[in-house]
Design a protein that fits this description.
It holds the Pfam family TOBE_2. This protein is α+β, with helices and mostly antiparallel strands and 358 residues long. It has two domains: 227 residues, Rossmann fold (3-Layer(aba) Sandwich), CATH 3.40.50.300; 109 residues, OB fold (Dihydrolipoamide Acetyltransferase, E2P), CATH 2.40.50. The chain has eight helices and 22 strands. Helix 2 crosses helix 3. The protein is globular, with a radius of gyration of 24 Å.
């Protein structure tokens, strides 16, 4: 296991980049502690797979350094970095038994057979595949094949980092939650440094202790799942995480006041100085139907089982809220109450409200 440091990292697939727009990865400075569970989260094309390939050694960055425990490994190939990687599609040998698949990474390094047997038994027990050890891999279901692929990455106890690149893509939706839970359990038991790449917020938030959210080759926020939900540092984070995502509402500023459709909005703290496009961000979970508040009209509603999602209009501005109580009829006049401690201003996408500590 290792602490991973990315220092002033940039990468361009253009051999002669001329400006920031030519870089798939803008400058990345990042530290991952030894033994942590991390996720790289973002939409397709945001740079997360490029970053993973640089960490694994499949790509050499245009600029910057990759360090494992302070040692510069930027120029080292994958086989010199002591890593394990699990891909979207299971990487196993169909003609081998499950036991031999799990044993292969150890045997390939000359590990004593008694140690191989002990380690394979340990990993098989963790993965709940002990009864499959004598079965040829070709006959396994897709989820069990991916379990074995994960096990091949975890069976060595000397790796610096285990990396997962969209490992649940080919798994049936009803089985994904089982594998997510199993992976979280495995991390708690083996305490290896793990990096999980995904575009699926549920996978990232249920697996990782720290989530790195990426957009257009940049890191826009690093935090715990709670931090990303409770206080997004960028409107992209607020919109990308949550279902429905955070309301991003056009706003204006009059002195120290922030206005929404002519109404004064109470924020979590004072707005920072600066210029740029101003918006208000508030999650649907922190808006309530009330006796007083911002006047609005119900546009539509959706019953999603655990609660209702109501879309109301404040003037010409659509606002979503989540409620578990009775829902007014479509077209009804209502009042919306924003929780001030979860209402923030954003300027050009970035958080522009200071937090007032109690």
């Amino acid at each position: 296991m290792a602490k991973i440091t990315l220092r002033r990292l940039r990468h361009s697939y253009d051999p002669s980049p001329k400006g920031p727009e030519d870089f798939a990865l803008k400058q990345i400075d990042l530290d991952w502690s030894d033994g942590g569970a991390y996720a790289l989260l973002g939409p397709s094309g945001c740079g997360k797979s490029t970053l993973l390939n640089i960490i694994s050694g499949l790509l050499v960055p245009t600029e910057g350094q990759v360090l494992f425990d302070g040692q510069d490994v930027t120029g080292l190939p994958p086989d010199k970095r002591n890593i394990a990687q699990v891909f979207q599609f299971p990487v196993i040998y169909d003609t081998m038994t499950v036991y031999d698949n799990l044993a292969f990474p150890l045997r390939n390094r000359g590990v004593d057979e008694s140690r191989v047997a002990a380690r394979v038994a340990e990993i098989a027990q963790m993965l709940d595949v002990t009864d499959l050890l004598g079965v040829r891999a070709a006959g396994l279901s897709p989820d069990n094949k991916q379990k074995i692929s994960m096990g091949r990455g975890l069976v060595r106890d000397d790796v610096n980092v285990v990396m997962f690149d969209e490992p649940l893509t080919v798994i049936d939706p009803h089985l994904k939650w089982k594998l997510r839970s199993k992976l979280k359990e495995l991390h708690a038991r083996v305490r290896a440094t793990m990096i999980y790449v995904t575009h699926d917020q549920t996978e990232a938030l249920t697996f990782a202790d720290q989530v790195v959210v990426m957009q257009d080759g940049e890191i826009v926020q690093i935090g715990t799942p709670v931090e990303l939900f409770e206080r997004p540092a960028h409107t992209f984070v607020g919109h990308f995480i949550g279902s429905p995502g955070m309301n991003i509402l056009p706003a204006t500023q009059e002195g120290e006041r922030v206005m929404l459709d002519g109404h004064d909005i109470a924020l979590e703290g004072p707005i920072t100085s600066g210029s740029g496009q101003l918006e208000i961000g508030i999650r649907p979970e922190f808006i309530e139907l009330a006796e007083t508040g911002l006047p609005a009209r119900v546009r539509r509603m959706a019953d999603v089982g655990r609660h209702n999602v109501v879309e109301a209009m404040i003037g010409d501005i659509p606002v979503k809220l989540v409620t578990e109580g009775p829902v007014p009829a479509q077209g009804s006049a209502v009042h919306l109450a924003f929780r001030p401690d979860h209402t923030r201003a954003y300027r050009d996408g970035w958080l522009a409200t200071e937090r007032v500590m109690p």
